[in-house]
Fold:
Amino acid sequence: MEYVIGSIQRGNLSHLILKTKGVEHTDFSGRLSLEQRRGNVIIKDTFTIMNKYHSEDGADGLTYDFYYIKDHFKEEDRSEEVRAGLEQQITDLEIDIIEQDQAITDHDIELMELHDTIDGLVG
Structure:
């Protein structure tokens, strides 16, 4: 089931609504929490169903239900998105460290060669 929360205008009043789309009709009531994923973000919507005001069967073979809702609260869990960003930063830092280690090793070899050259001239 997919869902979206929005608002509609009825006369001078704006109403918060829930629209659902799925393979079978819904029959929600009371306090409800629904979750959906958008990319790496998990969205949890919690609200109270006031009443179902419309249902229909779509030409696409899916069902559509419409509810008036109230007391809507939305939570977004971005931990996966943050984790992916941190993992990329760690990878970038590891590459930087490897490149710096290689630069130090190259520098050490140059110093040793220079030391050998000086020893050969002095020695």
